[in-house]
Amino acid sequence: MKKISTTLLLVLAAVQLFAQTATAPDSLYASDKIYVVVICAGIILLGLIIFLFSIDRRLKKIEKKSSGKI
Amino acid sequence: MHKMWWKILGSVLVLYATIAGFLATVPELPILHETIRNLYFHVPMWFAMIVLFSISVFYSIKVLRSNNPLDDIKAVESVNTGIVFGILGIVTGSVWAKFTWGQAWSFDVKQNFAAIALLLYFAYLVLRNAIDEEQKRAKISAIYNIFAYPMMVVLLFVLPRLQDSLHPGNGGNPGFNSYDLDSRMRMVFYPACLGWIIIGYWIYTLLFRLRSIDKNSAL
């Protein structure tokens, strides 16, 4: 696990290379504040996915209950 | 856990596509500029919708042969999910159009026909609700669905190509892939499409399971 997380961290270090564009970036990217938006959008999406998993789990419970009844 | 791998795959792909969709570099294009990133969000909605409608037409054909009410439920729930993705596609499309074409709804052929294609599927749901008897409803709506599907394909992919359109890939405009969907964008675009298709399919299975429990408890 430790190895995997270190590898992941090192891979993430390369992400910064993407930020270096040769030409002037658009204003949204120039201030580097785009990361704030990315974090928010990522949190929303992650939350929705976790919600989807929880609905799936609840449905599975009900399925078990109703199949036992019949 | 063993049955969940594709749900996790879909979640990871969608998360990756969203984060990379904001942060990965894109080619510099006139007019579009950074809005080309919408390609990772707007287009997968339509792909997911088409896959869900294809599932629906598959089960509509099946229900005519099998007369199995579960196949009918599969057909209607995949249309329900597909319509949600279609609405998201048309709304994101008009937001994108607002900033690149000048107007949210410029009565472009692609927009008009996409709206008509959605209306076709609204009509499918209205038709279903108008028939009370279950067997009849399954049969009539299955036949309607089999006709609606090729109409949807023609409206979205054939007719817009024959007229002037602002939408890429239509009316003499080349599609994005021919000149500016470079390999960097493909690395995000394809996972985004696959991921959203999987998420759409997942939501459809949830709705189907819910409806079949509902049906079982009613018996």
From TrEMBL, chain A:
Transmembrane segments: 35-55
Residues making up the signal peptide according to the UniProt record: 1-24
Family annotation (Pfam families): CcmD_alt
Keyword vocabulary terms for this entry: Membrane, Signal, Transmembrane, Transmembrane helix
Protein name as catalogued: CcmD family protein
Species assigned in the record: Pedobacter duraquae
UniProtKB/TrEMBL annotation, chain B:
InterPro entries for the chain: Cyt_c_assembly (IPR002541), Cyt_c_biogenesis_CcmC (IPR003557), Cyt_c_biogenesis_CcsA/CcmC (IPR045062)
Record localization: Membrane
Keyword field contains Transmembrane: yes
TM annotation in the entry: 40-61, 82-101, 113-131, 143-162, 188-207
GO terms assigned for molecular function: heme binding; heme transmembrane transporter activity
Source domain of life: Bacteria
Record's GO cellular component terms: plasma membrane
Functional description taken from the UniProt entry: Required for the export of heme to the periplasm for the biogenesis of c-type cytochromes.
The protein's name: Heme exporter protein C
